[in-house]
Specification:
It is built from eleven helices and seven strands. The chain has 398 residues and is α+β, with helices and mostly antiparallel strands. Strands 2-3-7-6 form a four-stranded antiparallel β-sheet, with no helix packed on it. Strands 1-4-5 form a three-stranded mixed β-sheet, covered by helices on one side.
């Protein structure tokens, strides 16, 4: 089901995907503080994304979508995160699921579901965490059962589901059967109408408060052709789509939020603190902040191009060096963007950098970005990269 295209030359766009309207980013920014303060899902922001066609960014044009590529994904994620990081991450995780469907859904499911996604009717949530397995993506404890008519019976507990109570459909990881090992995992699509969805936990966190990522219990039945990818072969789907698109989109969101904050800080300094700009210390700190953002931006662009090249060849990004680069991107982006905003807080000072009522929204961005290293734990990625380094003895750097 792949929609492969040859990557464009750097700086050249061949996609028909629309630019992100300034008014959409402004709406997200206007709602961001209140969404954060009340820890509520940004329903009006999601409605605006639906209306603007952004839920269908990665849906191929033959299904009515924008036909966007990974460059469009990264560009849009950065722009949306400049308005509201919670909203941008909600959208990015939806797009992660869309890419999975585009590349791995069967013909009937793709033909029925992707036009609905393109029309803004279906916002997708991902159910990959487990009460027993935690955030280990490639394992699952809850097992599929088969009904009398061969339908698939789902019973799933998940401690973290971003936007789950507001989703129109779910991609759910399940152990292939009661007799299967925990790594024999199938990915199943379930429409909300086919499920009973029960909230079993809230979401009252330090940051990313608008994502409404509380615990859910799902139960229901779906047709057997709603397994996405091979039965028991979710690993293939994850390595091909879910992991690379997730790491690219998340990193773009974190960079977009940090860059927007830096832009606001620089404008504030130029407007309110011009006498400080002659200080060598202030200039040195600005230079270090800028370098962190430049490093993330450059590495993000390099990894995106690498994944595009892999896809253009019709292969999967499962070579050791590509996996190292994807893991390194996520770890570097999460750590460097947080460090950059922490330095901004220090530079802005107590009343501007540390205040929730500041004209420069550093305090909220700092809290939001603290979650980045925990969103699929960096500790797990460092360990994986250490093992992968032993397989890439030629040390193929990006």
């Amino acid at each position: 089901m792949s929609d492969h295209r040859t990557p464009s030359a750097p700086g050249v766009r061949d996609s028909a995907a629309p630019d992100v309207p300034d008014a959409l980013v402004a709406l997200l920014a206007a709602n961001a503080a209140e969404v954060d303060r009340n820890a509520r899902f940004p329903v009006e922001n999601l409605a605006a994304l639906r209306s603007a066609g952004q839920l269908g960014l990665l849906v191929p044009r033959r299904y009515g979508g924008a036909g966007g590529d990974l460059a469009d994904l990264v560009r849009t994620a950065e722009r949306l995160a400049g308005g509201c990081l919670s909203t941008a991450m909600i959208w990015a995780m939806h797009c992660q699921q869309v890419d999975v469907l585009v590349r791995h859904a069967g013909p009937r499911l793709a033909a029925e579901l992707l036009p609905r996604v393109a029309a803004g009717e279906v916002y997708l949530a991902s159910v990959t965490t487990g009460t027993a397995t935690g955030g280990h993506l490639l394992s699952a404890a809850d097992a599929l059962e088969r009904g009398a008519g061969e339908e698939l019976l789902l019973g799933r507990e998940a401690p973290v589901v971003t936007g789950g109570q507001h989703a129109d459909g779910f991609l759910v990881t399940m152990r292939e059967s009661a007799d299967a090992g925990e790594h024999e995992v199938s990915l199943v699509y379930a429409d909300r109408a086919a499920l009973t969805v029960e909230a079993t936990g809230g979401w009252n966190t330090l940051g990313m408060r608008g994502t409404a990522s509380g615990a859910l219990r799902l139960s229901g039945a779906v047709p057997p052709d709603q397994v996405v990818g091979p039965s028991g072969g979710f690993r293939e789907v994850a390595l091909d789509s879910m992991v690379p698109v997730g790491h690219l989109a998340w990193s773009a969101c974190w960079l977009g939020a940090a860059r927007s904050s830096f832009s606001a800080l620089v404008r504030w300094l130029g407007r309110e603190q011009r006498e400080r700009l002659s200080s060598s210390l202030v200039r040195e700190r600005l230079g270090r902040i800028r370098l962190d953002l430049e490093l993330v931006s450059g590495y993000l662009g390099g990894v995106r191009a690498e994944v595009e090249q892999v896809r253009a060849r019709g292969s999967r990004p499962d070579a050791a060096e590509v996996q190292i680069h994807l893991n390194s991107l996520k770890a570097a982006a999460s750590e460097l963007t947080y460090r950059a905003v922490d330095r901004m807080v220090q530079l802005a000072g107590l009343t501007v950098g540390y205040s929730a009522d500041s004209p420069v929204p550093l305090e909220r961005t700092l809290r939001d970005l603290r979650s980045a290293a925990l969103n699929y734990s960096n500790d797990r990625l460092w360990t994986a990269n250490g093992a992968l380094c032993l397989l890439d003895r030629g040390v193929k750097l990006l």
